[in-house]
Amino acid sequence: MTVRPDALRRSRLTLVMLGTLFFAPFIAAWVVYTFFPDVRPSGTTNHGQLITPAKPVPTLMLKNSDGSVADGLFREKWSLVVLGAATCDETCAERLVLIRQVRLALGKDLSRLVRIYIAPDAAARADAEQRLADKHPGLRIVADDGALGQRASDFFQGGDALAAYLVDPNGNWLMLYSGPLEPKDLLSDLKKLLRLSSIG
Fold first, then answer.
1. Does residue 69 sit in the same domain as residue 21?
2. Domain total for the chain?
């Protein structure tokens, strides 16, 4: 059987066109990425500051109200951490209410997130328990009994009184929320992380 030259040309042209249609998007993307860096997407969809790389939380001397060490505090669940001061003032109380509301807004996933309030010492913990326990059921309140340089505030680089710190179920500090918290932004990040996570 003899193939006519015009039929052979049409077959080759069809093959070339199909190949061009298939590879053109990849070639175009490579050209844009390589030669036009200004048009690359640079933003992220998270609202908190991503800690890169994530930092494993070291062993901290955090104590419960009975004096026992709060072992495994940052394991198995997502943790939203607040570093307290000697007294939880009005700003502190508002922040804890916001965090409580965001957790409740997680719906069926709310049990996957724990709230942790770290007081700077035993006296501040006792004060926080008296002021906060009734209004914030489930809030873990612990005292930082670590030596200088080995405290929670040293690890989290505390300094922003409004900050909140997100720790993953493997005990890694993952995100920092500094300044005033926006409930919708925090909720958006948490929903996304819980949806993508198979742990906690």
1. no
2. 2
Nearest to 103 by CA among 193, 183, 195: 183
pLDDT at 3 over 70: no
Same domain, 66 and 33: no
pLDDT (tens digit, 9 = 90+) per residue, 38-65?
A: 555 444 566 789 999 999 999 999 999 9
Same domain, 23 and 103: no
Its domain, for residue 167, covers: 49-196
Residue 44 lies in a domain: no
Average pLDDT score over residue span 149-160: 89
Q: Indicate the pLDDT class of residue 133, thresholds 50, 70 and 90.
A: confident
Spell 124-142 as b/e; 16+ CB within 10 A means b.
bbebbbebbeeebeebbbb
Q: Is the pLDDT of residue 13 over 90?
A: no
Confidence (pTM): 0.76
Q: Is residue 94 part of a domain?
A: yes
Asked, for residue 30, whether it belongs to a domain, the answer is yes
